[in-house]
Amino acid sequence: MPVRPTAQRHTIVLVPLGPMTDTDRQRLAVLREYMEMYYTLPVRIGAPAPLDGVKFRDKTSAGPRPRQYLTTDILSKVLPPLLPKDALCLQAVTMADLYPEESWNYVFGQAQLSSRVGVYSLVRLYPEFWGEKDTPEARQKGLARSLKVLVHETGHMFGVWHCQKYQCNMNGSNSLAESDRQPIHLCPDCLKKFRWNIGFDMIRRCESLREFYKTHDMAAEAAWVADRLDQCRAAR
């Protein structure tokens, strides 16, 4: 029973959750633009939501461990009332660290498919969290990680599970290093699943993604999509 767009529910809503700087909001705007091209559906940024009342813990172990918020609390209490009537799904994006239960050190995000809501943290994807130097290269890596993680997690909302057949954006990962090795692109099987679900035009999608990658200095990704675009045009 995958979630599918309908005439009434066809928009992906991104909700800023918790405190965000101007830089964070700029990053969220880029994420919104990318998701709209990736899934070929309208994507809008909703009103900010606070983390007030969410259960949290303060980590005291060695290393950079800020306050962490419980994802199950967010999914059950905070997000369902915020789901608009026209929303296919609602994805909360936060710069707070998250954990799903006491036995876990952290989690990048979690979703509740039955209620069509999810929450994802970007804080560990950028150099500031790790105490590393903030360079253009580090920011570029953080952007690529954010794009990859959010479209992967949103993909689960459409009923697509982890891919085990090819190198694919829908591969599962258990660490940031493992996630870094995965491509941002979809494999042939997963692409067919999304196309069945959403019904997008392949050439138009490739053209939009190619221009996005060029604009954001993602040369390897732009070249990969350009090759796919040539194949699609030849096939058509």
Structural notes for this entry:
This protein has helices at residues 22-39, 71-78, 127-130, 136-157, 176-181, 188-198, 202-215, 219-235, and strands at 11-17, 43-45, 56-58, 67-70, 87-94, 97-99, 109-112, 117-121. The strands form 2 sheets. The protein has a 5-stranded mixed β-sheet with strand order 2-1-5-8-7, sandwiched between helices. It has 8 helices and 8 strands. By secondary structure, the protein is an alpha/beta fold. The chain has 2 domains: 11-200, Collagenase (Catalytic Domain); 202-236. It is globular and about 55 Å long. Strand 1 (11-17), helix 1 (22-39) and strand 2 form a beta-alpha-beta unit. The model has no long low-confidence stretch (mean pLDDT 91).
Low-confidence stretches: none
State the shape: globular
What's the CATH H-level homologous superfamily of the largest domain? Collagenase (Catalytic Domain)
Distance N to C terminus? 31 Å
Short key terms for the protein model shown above:
3-stranded mixed beta sheet, 5-stranded mixed beta sheet, Collagenase (Catalytic Domain), alpha/beta
